Amino acid sequence: MFNFKNKVAIVTGAASGIGRATAELLAKHGAKVIIADIQEQKCKEVAEFICEEGGEAVAIPCDVTVSIEVKKMVEKAVLLFGGLHIAVNSAGIEGVHAGTTGHTEEMWDKIIDVDLKSVWLSMKYELLEIEKQKEGCIVNVSSAAGLVAGAGTIAYTASKHGVIGLTKSAALEYASKGIRINAVCPGFVRTPMLEKLIDSYPEIQNQLASREPMKRLATVEEIAHAICYLCSDAASFVTGVSMPVDGGFTLWGI
Ligand code: NAI
Q1: Nearest CA to ligand 1 atom 34
Q2: Using CA atoms, how far apart are residues 247 and 241, in angstroms rounded to an integer?
Q3: SS3 122
Q4: Residue from 125, 156, 174, 229 carrying the catalytic annotation
Q5: pLDDT at 204 > cutoff 90
Q6: In angstroms, what is the span from residue 90 Cα to ligand 1's centroid?
Q7: Which one, of 91, 85, 175, lies nearest residue 132 by Cα?
Q8: Whose CA is nearest to atom 15 of ligand 1?
């Protein structure tokens, strides 16, 4: 379905969930993949797993909110594999259900740092390298919460809307330079992040699947396939889009 032979790809948040599934799919189709995540041990386990399956992957632990770590991660990737063509920025944390007045500054700063600022920081250093290849692409993982709003999750909703804004701005800036930049907007996906949210707010468990028009959650593979499509030549004229991969969730109206 895809051909990423001779491509080097960074995936942030690749130790778990959507990032991990995307790293595995990119590697399965020939890419050399950098597993970048704050969870050092899990990074290594994912890279080892990909190599055992016959792919090529290296773990480079990194906190994507720390500029110098992101810079070094990208530099190390280029040193190891000789360049960079693809980046998928999937690292993120769940929001809090605290209401607009209930959010503390600490909560706001943390969510905006990890879910929004880190995407800009990652792109900043990834683009410096991708530009040298004169072609390439970036996919940022936003959310259905980037397209519609969830009451009580103001920081997460703002961060995911922000990811769409920065994706559009960078896409315009780089369109004439051969670099495509897109976002995916997943609906509810069964990952450790969603499990954590359910642990904190057990009352939402039954609501989640029933709010999806398809009456089920997405699998990580379904999101990874959409990301890989946007990274592939099949999407060669697609840039700046915020693609819902949500089983119709954001269609809900009246
Ligand atoms: P996950 O929790 O399985 O994976 C997120 C990964 O990001 C983890 O491995 C974590 O260690 C890493 N991470 C967190 N903070 C980091 C930091 N400062 N530096 C480096 N790595 C860091 O979660 P999931 O569900 O795979 O989430 C991936 C992305 O998808 C997130 O941006 C999330 O907001 C988004 N998303 C998830 C949905 C879902 O239902 N699971 C729905 C819509 C969007």
Answers
A1: 92
A2: 17
A3: helix
A4: 156
A5: no
A6: 6
A7: 85
A8: 92
**Is ligand 1 within 6 A of the CB of residue 64?**
yes
Closest CA to 123 of 94, 165, 95, 155: 165
Strand order from edge to edge, sheet including 86-89: 56-59, 32-36, 8-12, 86-89, 136-141, 179-186, 242-245
Tell me the CA–centroid distance for residue 254 and ligand 1, in Å: 31
What is the average per-residue pLDDT within 87-99?
A: 95
Cα gap 177→88, rounded to integer Å? 19
Question: Is 32 strand, coil or helix?
Answer: strand
- Ligand 1 center to 13 CA (angstroms): 6
Mean pLDDT of 239-251: 97
**Which secondary-structure segment (H or E) carries 242?**
strand 242-245
Q: What predicted TM-score, i.e. pTM, was given to this entire model?
A: 0.98
> d(Cα 111, Cα 4) in Å, to the nearest integer?
33
Contact 129, 74 (CB under 8 A): yes
